[in-house]
Amino acid sequence: MRHVKWIFVVLLICSLTAFVEKDKPTGGLNEGNVAPDFKVESTLDTQPAFQLNQLKGRYVLLSFWASYDAHSRMQNISLSNVLRSSRNVKLVSISFDEFESIFKETVRKDQIVTPTCFVETQGENSRLFKKYNLNRGFTNYLLDGNGVIIAKNISAADLSAYVKDIG
């Protein structure tokens, strides 16, 4: 009977530690990884399809968002505002709204620069969504000229500092 109590205690402790959050990354893309290349077809009449490797040699900020996700939308607006006058970092803004009309209205309301703003109308079912492991939440990535991720989930203030350091 005494052994049963100890076994129960050990099982209880093991089950509790299984729910403790670990410090190491849990998958997805992280700093130091090369960002996967992708191609997005344009929905705006004035712009052609876009492929990430077209910007090889330039710093790029990839911003993934959707109009229904308030945090990602606000983050996208603030990052877009930081980069309005920057020539050193190119913003590529990608929405995962399933309706093009909602995307266009959001871009208009938020005053996002449209030459590099795209929508992936397959939303969470798109290959791009899965490739960047966005099921853990919308995020952004700052890439160096070789496509290596040098920052993830960067704030507007941190981006502003990077822009000053780069140029």
Automatic annotation (TrEMBL):
UniProt xrefs under InterPro entries: AhpC/TSA, Thioredoxin-like_sf, Thioredoxin_domain
Entry keyword annotation includes Signal: yes
Domain Thioredoxin residue range list: 29-167
Xref: CDD domains: TlpA_like_family
Record-given protein name: Redoxin domain-containing protein
Endpoints of the signal sequence: 1-20
Keyword Disulfide bond among record annotations: no
Keywords: Signal
Native organism taxonomy: Bacteria, Pseudomonadati, Bacteroidota, Bacteroidia, Bacteroidales
Classification via Pfam families: AhpC-TSA (PF00578)
Entry superkingdom: Bacteria
Species for this entry: Bacteroides pyogenes
